[in-house]
Write a structure and sequence with these properties.
Chain B: It comes from Ruegeria meonggei. Chain B: Keywords: Methyltransferase, Oxidoreductase, Transferase. Chain B: InterPro entries: 2Fe-2S-bd_N (IPR042204), FAD/NAD-bd_sf (IPR036188), GcvT/YgfZ/DmdA (IPR028896), GcvT/YgfZ_C (IPR029043), GcvT_C (IPR013977), GCVT_N (IPR006222), Sarcosine_oxidase_asu (IPR006277), SoxA_A3 (IPR041117). The complex is a heterotrimer of chains A (about 100), B (about 1000) and C (about 425). Chain A is built from two helices and six strands. With about 100 residues, chain A is an alpha+beta fold. Chain A has one domain: 2-Layer Sandwich (Folate-binding fold), CATH 3.30.2270.10. Chain A has a four-stranded antiparallel sheet with strand order 3-4-5-6. With about 1000 residues, chain B is α+β, with helices and mostly antiparallel strands. Chain B folds into seven domains: about 160 residues, Ubiquitin-like (UB roll), CATH 3.10.20.440; about 240 residues, FAD/NAD(P)-binding domain (3-Layer(bba) Sandwich), CATH 3.50.50.60; about 110 residues, FAD/NAD(P)-binding domain; about 55 residues; about 170 residues, Gyrase A, domain 2; about 100 residues, 2-Layer Sandwich (Alpha-Beta Plaits); about 100 residues, Aminomethyltransferase beta-barrel domains (Elongation Factor Tu (Ef-tu), domain 3, Beta Barrel), CATH 2.40.30. Helix content of chain B is about 20%, strand content about 25%. The N and C termini of chain B lie far apart (about 95 Å). Chain C is α/β, with parallel strands linked by helices and about 425 residues long. Chain C folds into two domains: about 220 residues, FAD/NAD(P)-binding domain (3-Layer(bba) Sandwich); about 150 residues, D-Amino Acid Oxidase, Chain A, domain 2 (2-Layer Sandwich). In chain C, helix 2 packs parallel to helix 7, helix 2 packs across helix 10 and helix 3 crosses helix 10. Chain C is globular, with a radius of gyration of 21 Å. Chain C starts with a helix and ends in a 16-residue tail after the last helix. The chains are: A alpha+beta (about 100), B alpha+beta (about 1000), C alpha/beta (about 425). Chains in contact: A-B, A-C, B-C. Chains B and C meet through strand 6, helix 3, helix 9, helix 10 and strand 31 of B and helix 1, helix 3, helix 5, helix 7 and strand 12 of C.
Chain lengths: ~100, ~1000, ~425
């Protein structure tokens, strides 16, 4: 597979390490009342879709960017690649 | 007898005579031959035995689809079993042996299987051999296994080298027949970066096997001219002997180039084969078509071949399989073979055509509306029986029979991404379906365009379209454009022992039995009968099997199913996929800067991940490793020792939010760590389980140095980047791995300070007051060399870790040894390191095994509840906090002479010894020279409250039971006075 | 019809006219007591044990394609019970015992071959871990044997003992481990289940569940609604997809695992070998092919195919371990969809929907589990309580912290 890195252009997927669903960006609030349940769901439950999947890849043998790759789990077609940091900010994460 | 079946003409070099041996007999051949053509030239028709019935087998085809003509090629440690004679390029000195026969090809003991074939029907083994149960492994299976299999491996290490490479192109063209060559000319002339790959050693594909003309040239001359033009184009790379084996994601194609298989011996340091990963913008499949057989009774004898193959052998290789040849066909292409062979002077016994309206010939007899009903000839065809249109039977004497049931497009690569081919009624064949791999198009016969003109045109058009070329297409040479319609004819009516899969011995009867027993989907058929599972992957047999299944099911072929194909297109040596990654090169070897110094000292090394670390440093006279290790421990604890700990992961953390970041990463607090101080840190995974431990030293307000364990360096770094980029993107913090940048040494023992004082530049105070336990700082050593000093201790002694830029590591180690002579300094290795950390009760990899919590490790209180850190929430789950949770404890034998075994389980002194009564387990064990006893660390249920208890340590797998006492994990200096000295 | 050597001879002498279909091809009835979704190894085994052991008479297995077409038809055929953790070992040992009696139980020769499996050891830490595991196996009533390098060498002299980057220092052997002819497992269970009255309905895809007031009443399928007292889902890699129709999110990701087979070769490998310093394990089939595999490709996928880097990685492991296979040719590669759970261990449990039960999360260890998985799922479906060997395989273990994590890598499925 080839991942079109937003900064570096097309790179072979073997340069990357895979983590999983990009929902891992949405880490719950540790002080929320339902934190225990929210963390359980965050850590363990997955949509695991057939089709479009937003997922985290780490450019380990490259520039060490975490990327959010939108990839079809049936065809492996990649439709979008973003810097995870940008996605995280867009989803309201800060410090 | 030399080359009695050699004809005139052909594309062989008659001036070069090559010697080769088959089954220990010598023969001659010419350059340009394959092993198959050379054997046929020498009148050898039978070259193997089939898988199940051990029936005689000869060459069926002239290409890589060959199921029958497979041999063991070469000898000794270069023996290659199951090698297709049809694609083996002849070289001088070639040696080949027939296989799957004993004691000889002609007299094969297991040929008896053929007599009992009725008992060996499809799937018979699923219904018997069940009683008595124990006989399966002892009797039945060994018997079956010995009979099965084909060729044998040499059992010696493969001596050849293999390599891997990467190529990129605008257009990869797969196959160099008329469509491939025309596509390459079109794209090449337009300036595109083109790779043209073909599995054959001669480019030109089918053009090399035909006698028709392209424009003013013979087909093979036109191909040669096209190749000459292409090879002169700098933007075109021709790759003969290169099989494109698979279409992978995003336009990546795998290809295997056979760089050395055609050579008698490999030149020094040259690879036998190269695995290419070809990154393409577009690809064009021009793989042509494969001729399909017709099933009839006893259609598997040596001498019965595909008609197109007979023509290839005659036209390209100037060989006939026999002086007298018959043809059995359902289409015009069979007649072309008859005409070409007749022109070469071969006697045509007759053309048997199932069609009533078949074309006739002045040169030879055509039997219209006739069918071959049986054949004879034990080791090779002698005659065929033909049922004529009028109902009478006739016998044709012939040594070879060319069979043509039409042609199937080679759609294989179009299926590699699970695309399904589509049924084409006019061709009665599967053609590429709509779901092609992205970027791939198909031209020529592979796309169902069967005429030469059509192939040329579609090659040009597809190339132009893929590259979005404007302007006119190149002029096409005038070529045959005969319309092709294929009326299917799969098998002669009433046939039973009519072979579909000739290698695996699957007959029409087997397919019918499969249907009868309910194995009706194509996949069930294949799995039940083994149809198409042989080394040729059913290239000549799948369609026939599918057609018979459709017929007995009373359905159409597309209703019955499709055949799809998986990579690789043809089998690939495992060595080729491995390339150079074998032996010592399997993984990279990481060496620390003082590796060569350690080697000079005679160190014994051990693999730690990809690192090599010194395990111990034997002195002359030491005969057992324990002597060395015990000495290293004693001397370190008595005076001073130095250990290379460069392999620990080191991560620089910088930025105004560095402290806040570490506070998030570590379970314990870091926000208030003073500059110049180091703190032990425990990192949890988000699931609350301990991930790694190490230290973080604060060199400046906005600068920390984090260390990780050797094993987890990469994981921890990745995790920290995840937290930084994905969870706290606005923190002002930067990370960089500096593991390779700094050489680091532990200097441990009561004289550690004295030793270091000799090299640390005098302006730095490293006295206990000036540089107390857990201090850290930037210093210089040896007169100005920058260094980092940490007063941390893994051994439990007064200890420092000193880091210098990697290129000074070797020099620093030598200097420490020289300066340390007055203290009798010892270097110590990972064994002594391990012993001392067990004596001190420090957890390491064996304890941080991915299932233990901070609580288990005795560090439950370190997990701060006042801040948000990774893993803290889920570490509170109920099962992780049960009262009898495992706790880390020390373990000592009651009798000091007994040994503690890591991996042993802890049981109460009384009661049963079984899993239900398991109390815990030993993680680490060592002989402690300090206590003169074997000791261990381990996890015990409710261990914190069981110190002093006696238990049984059981290790049934090593046959040990030892009475032990549970003690504190801190065997040495439990109060920690030494580290603070 | 009972299969036997006698029957084979009789049929051979009478033209094989008497063989009948191994299973019927029934149309679905309107209502069953129990419907099992998934005609793979686990689903068919469940049906067999439901009918034969638990006396259930109205059972159907519904399969969207052809039976045995999932992971039971595409795996590396290994059986073993060499597990470490208490939640696992008794279950897998139960499974191995069922394998040992399988052929007589179902009257089908699935070629259960206890040729032994050896997990190689390359470091002291690995030896410690395998010692602990071997002990756990024996304490659970299984067999285990710790070998030193010389003992391994005696059995497999052609492994790389001369030039290895990670030298072989020993091995953990389980002599009762081995291989089974994988397709025959599905067929054997199917034939037996069918003979006990189970309806096996192929080419019937589940399109939804009919759930009213929190109770599952049956399944909507491509052949219409099929009512059921209880529905059991055993669909391996498609667990997320199917349970999603019931509104459930699972602690599971679907990944691709590739496997490989070489051309047929005369016997060379007596047992199963697992490399401890790379991603490679291998055995030889009765037909002579080397059957081998390695690691996941690593990314979520339902594509049933993988990519070159893992093919290369596996073959590199093979050449590093046994350089005599260099000239054996890789014949075929394929990919299966693995239901990778969050701790690497399976789930056999009730769901929040009454009457809906789940069996999945087998990661790439599902094949060896087939008999016990079927048995325990049948037990759960029939008795509404977990089988004693499968009590740990609960959904809520992630919520409570009772993970069964053999590899110790945590909640990242592709690492298990």
């Amino acid at each position: 597979m080839i991942i079109n890195h937003p900064l570096l252009g097309p790179r072979d997927a073997s340069e990357f390490a895979y983590l999983g669903d990009a929902s891992l960006i949405d880490r719950p609030d540790w002080q929320a009342e339902n934190a225990a349940e929210a963390f359980y769901e965050y850590a363990y439950l997955r949509d695991n879709p057939v089709g479009e999947h937003r997922e985290l890849w780490f450019h380990e043998a490259g520039d060490r960017s975490w990327l959010v790759v939108t990839r079809n789990t049936m065809t492996h077609e990649i439709s979008k690649v973003e810097l995870a940091r940008d996605v995280a900010r867009a989803r309201g994460r800060s410090k | 007898m030399t080359q009695t079946n050699r004809l005139s003409g052909g594309q062989i070099d008659r001036n070069t005579t090559l010697n080769f041996r088959f089954d220990n007999r010598s023969y001659t051949a010419h350059s340009g031959d394959t092993l198959a053509s050379a054997l046929l030239a020498n009148g050898v028709r039978m070259i193997g035995r089939s898988f199940k019935y051990h029936r005689p087998r000869g060459v069926l085809t002239a290409g890589s689809e060959e199921p029958n003509g497979i041999v063991e090629l070469r000898t000794g440690n270069r023996k290659e079993p199951n090698t297709r004679a049809t694609t083996t390029e002849m070289f001088d000195g070639l040696e080949a042996q027939s296989q799957n026969r004993w004691p000889s090809l002609k007299y094969d003991a297991l040929a008896v299987n053929d007599l009992f074939s009725n008992f060996l029907s499809a799937g018979f083994y699923y219904k018997t051999f069940m009683w008595p149960a124990a006989f399966w492994e002892k009797l039945y299976e060994p018997m079956i296994r010995r009979a099965a299999g084909l060729g044998s491996l040499s059992m010696e290490d493969d001596p050849d080298e293999y390599d891997k490479g990467f190529r990129h192109c605008d257009l990869l063209i797969i196959g160099s027949g008329p469509s491939g060559l025309m596509a390459a000319l079109t794209a090449g002339r337009a300036g595109a970066d083109v790779i043209l790959a073909d599995e054959d050693f001669a480019l030109g594909g089918r053009l090399n096997s035909e006698t028709f003309t392209l424009g003013d040239h013979s087909a093979s001359d036109w191909a040669a001219q096209a190749v000459a033009e292409l090879s002169a184009l700098p933007n075109v790379r021709l790759m003969p002997r290169t099989t494109v084996i698979g279409a992978f994601d995003h336009g990546v194609y795998g290809a295997v180039e056979r760089t050395g298989d055609h050579l008698p011996t490999l030149p020094a340091a040259k690879p036998r084969q190269i695995l290419w990963r070809i990154y393409t913008k577009r690809a064009l499949l021009c793989a042509g078509a494969t001729e399909r057989p017709i099933a009839f009774e006893n259609n598997d004898r040596p001498g019965i071949m595909m008609a197109g193959a007979l023509r290839s052998y005659a036209n390209r290789f100037a060989v006939t399989a026999s002086e007298r040849v018959a043809i059995f066909t359902n289409n015009d292409d069979g007649h072309r073979t008859a005409a070409d062979m007749h022109a070469k002077g071969v006697k045509i016994a007759a053309v048997v055509d199932v069609r009533d309206d078949a074309p006739t010939s002045h040169d030879y007899e055509v039997l219209r509306g006739a069918q071959v009903t049986d054949t004879k000839g034990r080791h090779g065809l002698t005659f065929v029986e033909v049922a004529l249109a009028d109902g009478t039977t006739r016998t044709l004497d012939c040594g070879a029979l060319g069979v043509s049931g039409g042609w199937n497009p080679n759609v294989h690569l179009t299926c590699h991404q699970r695309g399904r081919p589509a049924w084409n009624e006019a061709l009665a064949a599967f053609v590429p379906g709509p779901d092609l791999p992205v970027g791939l198009s198909v031209a020529g016969a592979a796309n169902g365009v069967m005429s030469t003109h059509g192939a040329l045109q579609s090659g040009a058009e597809e190339a132009a379209q893929l590259l979005e070329l404007s302007g006119a297409l190149p002029d096409l040479p005038k070529a045959e454009d005969a319309p092709v319609a294929q009326k299917p004819f799969w098998c002669v009516e009433g046939c039973k022992r009519a072979w579909l899969d000739q290698q695996n011995d699957v007959t029409v009867k087997d397919v019918k039995l499969s249907y009868q027993e309910g194995f009706r989907s194509v996949e069930h058929l294949k799995r039940y009968t083994t149809l198409g599972m042989a080394t040729d992957q059913g290239k000549t047999s799948n369609m026939g099997g599918l057609a018979i299944m459709a017929e007995v099911a009373g359905k159409s072929i597309p209703e019955t199913g499709t055949t799809i194909f998986r990579p690789p297109y043809t089998p690939v040596p495992i060595g080729t996929f491995a390339g150079r990654m074998r032996g010592q090169e399997f993984h990279p070897t990481r060496l620390t800067p003082s590796h060569y110094w350690a080697k000079e000292r005679g160190a014994v090394f051990v693999e730690v991940g990809n690192w090599l670390r010194a395990q111990w440093f034997p002195l002359p006279g030491e005969t057992h490793w324990r002597e060395s290790v015990d000495r290293e421990v004693r001397q370190t604890r008595a005076s001073v020792g130095v250990c290379d700990c460069t392999t620990l992961g080191k991560i620089d953390v910088q930025g105004t939010d560095a402290a806040a970041f570490l506070n998030r990463i570590y379970a314990n607090g870091f926000a208030k760590l003073a500059v110049g101080k180091t703190r032990y840190g425990l990192m949890l995974r988000e699931d609350g389980i301990a991930m790694d431990d190490g230290t973080a030293g604060r060199l400046a307000e906005d600068h920390f140095v984090v260390t990780t364990t050797t094993a987890n360096a990469a994981n921890v770094y990745r995790h920290m980047e995840f937290v930084r980029q994905c969870l706290c993107p606005d923190m002002d913090v930067q990370l960089i791995s500096t593991t390779e940048a700094w050489a680091q040494y532990a200097v441990a023992g009561p004289n550690a300070r004295k030793l270091l004082q000799k090299i640390v530049d005098p302006e730095f105070d490293i006295s206990n007051e000036g540089f107390p336990f857990m201090a850290c700082g930037n210093i210089t050593v040896c007169g100005g060399l920058r260094a980092r000093l940490f007063r941390i201790s893994f051994s439990g002694e007064l200890a420092f870790e000193i880091a210098v830029p990697a290129r000074y590591g070797d020099a620093l180690m030598r200097r420490l040894m020289t300066e340390g002579e007055e203290f009798a300094v010892v270097p110590y290795g990972t064994e002594a390191l391990g012993v001392m950390r067990i004596e001190k009760g420090h957890a390491a990899g064996n304890e941080l095994n991915g299932t233990t919590t901070a609580l288990n490790l005795g560090m439950g209180r370190m997990v701060s509840k006042k801040k948000d850190s990774i893993g803290s929430t889920l570490s509170e789950r109920e099962a992780l906090n049960e009262p009898d949770a495992l706790r880390m404890v020390g373990i000592k034998p009651v009798d000091a002479d007994h040994k503690i075994t890591a991996g042993g389980h802890l049981m109460n002194t009384e009661g049963p010894v079984d899993a239900a009564h398991d109390q815990g387990y030993v993680t680490s064990a060592a002989y402690s020279p300090s206590l003169n006893s074997s000791i261990g660390l381990g996890f015990l249920k409710n261990g914190g409250n069981r110190l002093g208890e006696q238990m049984r340590l059981v290790s049934p797998v090593t046959d040990l039971t030892v009475e032990v006492e549970i003690v504190s994990a801190h065997f040495v200096d439990p109060e920690g006075e030494r580290v603070r000295a | 019809m009972r299969y036997s050597g006698f029957r084979v001879i009789k049929e051979a002498l009478t033209g094989h006219e008497g063989w009948t279909p191994a299973w019927r091809d029934p149309e679905p009835k309107a209502q069953y007591d129990i419907v099992v979704i998934g005609g793979g190894g686990h689903g068919l085994a469940t049906a067999h044990y439901l009918a034969k052991v638990y006396g259930q008479r109205k059972v159907a297995v519904i399969e969207k394609g052809w039976i045995g077409g999932g992971n039971v038809g595409r795996n590396t055929t290994i059986i073993r019970s060499n597990y470490l953790l208490d939640g696992n070992e008794p279950f897998y040992e139960f499974s191995l015992k069922l394998w040992e009696g399988l052929e007589q139980d179902v009257n089908y020769n699935a070629m259960v071959s206890q040729r032994g499996i050896i997990n190689l050891i390359h470091s002291d830490a690995q030896r410690d871990a395998f010692t602990r595991r071997g002990n756990a196996m024996i304490l659970n009533g299984a067999d285990a044997e710790l070998l030193d390098a010389d003992q391994v060498r005696k059995e497999y002299p052609y492994l790389n003992f001369n030039d290895a980057r990670f030298p072989i220092k020993g091995g953990l052997a389980q002599r009762r481990g081995g291989t089974v002819r994988h397709d025959a497992v599905a067929w054997g269970y199917a034939r037996s289940a069918d003979s006990h009255g189970v309806d096996i309905i192929q080419n019937c895809e589940v399109t939804g569940f009919r759930i009213e007031n929190g109770k599952c009443l049956g399944v909507e399928t491509s052949k219409g609604f099929i009512g059921a007292g209880k529905v059991g889902c055993a669909v391996a890699g498609n667990s997320g997809r199917v349970m999603g129709m019931a509104g459930m999110r699972l602690p599971i990701e679907s990944h691709v695992l590739q496997a490989f087979v070489s051309e047929g070769l005369k016997p060379l490998l007596p047992g199963v070998i697992t490399f401890g310093a790379g991603h490679f394990y291998v055995s030889q089939s009765d037909k002579g092919g080397l059957v081998f595999g390695g690691d996941l490709d690593g990314y979520n996928s339902y594509a049933q195919r993988g990519n070159l880097p893992v093919v290369e990685d596996v073959c590199e492991g093979g050449m590093a371990l046994m350089p005599m296979i260099g000239r054996a040719r890789l014949l075929r590669m394929w990919g299966g969809i693995m239901d990778m759970s969050m701790d690497g261990s399976p789930i056999i449990d009730r769901t929040p929907v009454e009457g809906l039960y789940f069996n999945g999360g087998w990661c790439y260890g599902g094949f060896k589990a087939t008999p016990a998985s079927g048995y325990c799922f049948a037990h759960l479906l029939a008795r509404d309580e977990p089988h004693p060997t499968a009590t740990a395989y609960r959904f809520d273990r992630f919520r409570t912290g009772r993970m069964i994590d053999e590899k110790g890598v945590g909640n990242q499925p592709n690492l298990h």
